[in-house]
Every structure is written in structure tokens, then in C-alpha cells.
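Appendix B, example 12.
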Amino acid sequence: MTSKLAVPMPSRRDRIFGIALVLAYTVSVGQGFVLPFLPDLLERIETAEAADRADQVGLAMAAFFAGGLLTAPLWGWLSDRFGRRPVLLAGMIGFALTLALTARVNSVPGLYLFRALNGAFGVAVVPITLATVADLFPEAAERGCRFAWINAVVVFGYLSGPVLGELLSRVGWTWFFAAPALLAAAVTAPVFLLPKATPLRSTVQQALASPPGRTRLALWLAVSATAAGGLAAMEVVVAMAPEARGLTRSSVSLLFGVCSLLMLGAQLLQFLKSDTGQQAARLTTPMLALQVIALGAVSLIDGFWGLAAAISILAWSAATLLLFSSYLISRLTPASHGWGLGLQYAAAATGQFLGSTLVSGLGGARGAGALWLFALAAGLLCLAMSRIAPVPNARQ
């Protein structure tokens, strides 16, 4: 059985949407804020060589993704059963606490533990804000537009987090993990303004009742994992040996900045005035093909300008595919938005985890093996997605 609550009036829907934007930005800026300071934290808690610390930073990032991929579907299911508000409250409070406690760790295993917990609480926020938006905006074009904004503020948070951290460090702020923790704690209060009950109360089985629906859901989860994993692999490949590719640390930072800006542009410019379902039907196969080309190019090209072109194509197509997947999975799981979007977030986190960990094991310093593995996955998905419609009646 399902039970729907009345959709709030437009003005109240907009206020709730504004709260969702603030929550999504707070978590993403917190994630981006602490990353540049992980090496400093590792240097404080142990005396490993610089090369070992680089590996440990990668493992700390992987621990964050691992925490998210293991818990995102559970948070989504809980939000479907008991409401979005209690899950968002738990996520924001847990995210703030684990960020604050990370600064107090005095061992590498402790750092991994708190990074995993931070990731586990973080995924109680972003996918559930998307589920809240899906509940409030059943109209296809309006939902696609709102999803684009949520995804855009997440990308902007990742982009602005390191910049804000650097600015605070220049004015003498030394409690690096405290700043995003305080921000997360401060924006917990607006969560109480969200509706108490869940707009839809249903079972997961309803979302999987149709074999074609199960096939489409599986394919879009694979698209999420491939797009996110290819980006993560590219970031590790470019960052771990810049000199071998004719780059400096500043040029690598510039490349990543361009990547984030293009992802932001893909979320906002391409879909705000369009039906995302129709766009997905038209652009999915070309975007997957661009993934294949871009990943292959990154594995072969040296020099700033060539890599800038390849990374630009990769960032734009990946952002487009991630928006498609979150939007269409929300259409495929109408009675279980939280669970479906939790699965989508877990799939993306799985891709990021694999992209972060496979590079050194597949292909040496250039990471060619990992990049071509994700290129192969994108090519296979391109063939598979070209044979089916993204969702039945994409206009709906």
C-alpha cells in the first residue's frame, strides 16, 4: 500500500527546495574543504615518508567512499519508511560530529575509521535531498530542473571547499576540520522545517516489479558507477605523477578547477529549460561514446593543453550522465525515491572507490589499465543503452 500526502503549495515547496540546496551544499563543501589538509593531518599523527603519506591520503579518500557505498541504500530505505526529516537530521549531526572528531585522531587506522564514518553520514544527506525534491516535484520538466540545481550545488561545493580552506589558512585559521563541522552543525536547524512524514510509504518490491524496470535500473546504476569511476581514476592518474606528463602542481590544480567548472556548467546550462527525460533519450549514447574517447585520450596524451581538452570532454559527459542517472532512477522508483537514489549514490561511490584504488594496480604510473577498463565499461554500456529507451514514456 502507498499513501500520499498532499503536495505542498508552490511557495512552501520552494522553501523546502531552498533548504535541500543548503544541506546538499554544506555536505559537499565539507568534503572538499578537508581534502587538502589530509596530508598535514597524516604528518602530525605519524612520521611516514612522503610517498607513503601520498598512499595513505588515497586510502583515506577510499575509506570515505567505502562508507558511503555501504550505507546509502540503507539510509534511503529508512527515509522511505520513516520520513526524510529524521534521516537528514541524523546525517547532518553525524557528519558534523565525525568531521570534528577527525581532527582529534592520533593514528592512521583512526583516521580511516572516521573518514569512513564521515562518508556514511554524508550519504544520509545528498541522496535524501534528491528524494525530497522528487517527492515535491512530480512534474518531469520541473523535477529535472530541480535535480540539475541540486547536482550543481554539490559540484560547486566540491569546487569551493578547497578554496575556502586555503583562504582560512591564509588568515590564520588552524582548526581546519572545525570550520566545515561548525557549518554543518549550524545548518541542522532548518531541517526541522521539513515535513514530518514521508510523502510516499511503500515497499522496495514495487520498484522492482517489472523486468524491464529492473533492467533499466541496473543499467543506470552501471552508468553512474562508470561515469564517477572514470572521473576518479583520471584525477588520481593526473595527480600522482604530474612531472611525467609535463605538468606542475599548479597546472594540475588548474586542470581540476576547469574540470569542476565544466561539471557545474553541464548541470546548469544544458538542462534548466529542457525535459531531462527527452535529453536522456537523445544524448545518453553520445555521452557514453565521449567517455570512451576521453578516457583513452587521458591515458595517451601528455602536456597541459591536450589533457585540458580530454579532461573537459570527460567532465562534461560524466556530469551529464550522472544527472541523467539520478533523474531517471527517481522516475523508475516512484514509490521508493529514497531507496532508488540511495542505490544510485552507492553506485557512484563504488565507481569512485574503484577508480581511486585500481590505478596503481593497473598500468603503473600512467594508470592506463584502469582508464581503459572504465573506457571499456562505457563502450559496453553505450551498446546496451542504444538498444533500450531510458525510461518508458520519457516525457512523463
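Residues 1-6 have pLDDT under 50 and may be disordered. Residues 10-189+203-385 form a domain with the Growth Hormone; Chain: A; fold (CATH 1.20.1250.20).
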